[in-house]
């Protein structure tokens, strides 16, 4: 597979980029070099390689869900700019 100047022009149009003719040629060469390098991966023997989603073994660390006391309402409302009926009052967003 190779990238043509037409492909570069198409992607540039989608990205709303205006490229000079030199830039089109430059990007065509660079993208083809990337694809050529990626094709080398096809030469590797991966038959005995287990599929992975990450190179490191990562596990979610979850804590137990346990009840804990909340902050007292008086302490919470001390930081509120305005309060009403033990609730934080915010400006209306709907008319």
How does this structure look, described?
- By secondary structure, the chain is mainly alpha-helical.
- 36% of the residues lie in helices and 4% in strands.
- It has three helices and two strands.
- Strands 1-2 form a two-stranded antiparallel ribbon.
- A hairpin with a 2-residue loop joins strand 1 and strand 2.
- The chain is elongated.
- The model has no long low-confidence stretch (mean pLDDT 90).
Annotated CATH homologous superfamily of one domain: Glu-tRNAGln amidotransferase C subunit, N-terminal domain
**Which H/E pattern describes the elements?**
HHHEE
Describe the main β-sheet briefly: 2 strands, antiparallel
**How would you write the strand order of the largest sheet?**
1-2
The radius of gyration computed from the alpha-carbon positions, rounded to a whole number of angstroms, is 29 Å
Number of strands: 2
Kindly report the CATH topology of one domain: Histone, subunit A
The shape is: elongated
What is the overall number of helices? 3
- Average predicted confidence as pLDDT: 90
The CATH class of one domain turns out to be Mainly Alpha
Portion of residues in beta strands equals: under 5%
Binned, the helix content reads 25-40%
> Structural class, from helix and strand content?
mainly alpha
Low-confidence stretches: none
Any idea what the CATH architecture of one domain is?
Orthogonal Bundle
Rounded to the nearest angstrom, the distance between the terminal CA atoms is 57 Å
Catalytic activity: L-aspartyl-tRNA(Asn) + L-glutamine + ATP + H2O = L-asparaginyl-tRNA(Asn) + L-glutamate + ADP + phosphate + 2 H(+); L-glutamyl-tRNA(Gln) + L-glutamine + ATP + H2O = L-glutaminyl-tRNA(Gln) + L-glutamate + ADP + phosphate + H(+)
EC number: 6.3.5.-
Family: Belongs to the GatC family.
Protein name: Aspartyl/glutamyl-tRNA(Asn/Gln) amidotransferase subunit C
């Amino acid at each position: 597979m190779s990238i043509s100047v037409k492909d570069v022009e198409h992607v540039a149009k989608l990205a709303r980029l205006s490229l000079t003719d030199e830039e089109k040629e430059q990007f065509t060469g660079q993208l083809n070099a990337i694809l050529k390098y990626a094709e080398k991966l096809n030469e590797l023997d991966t038959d005995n390689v287990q599929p992975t989603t990450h190179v490191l073994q990562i596990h979610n660390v979850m804590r137990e869900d346990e009840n804990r006391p909340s902050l007292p309402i008086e302490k919470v409302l001390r930081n509120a700019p305005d309060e009403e009926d033990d609730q934080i009052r915010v400006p209306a967003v709907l008319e």
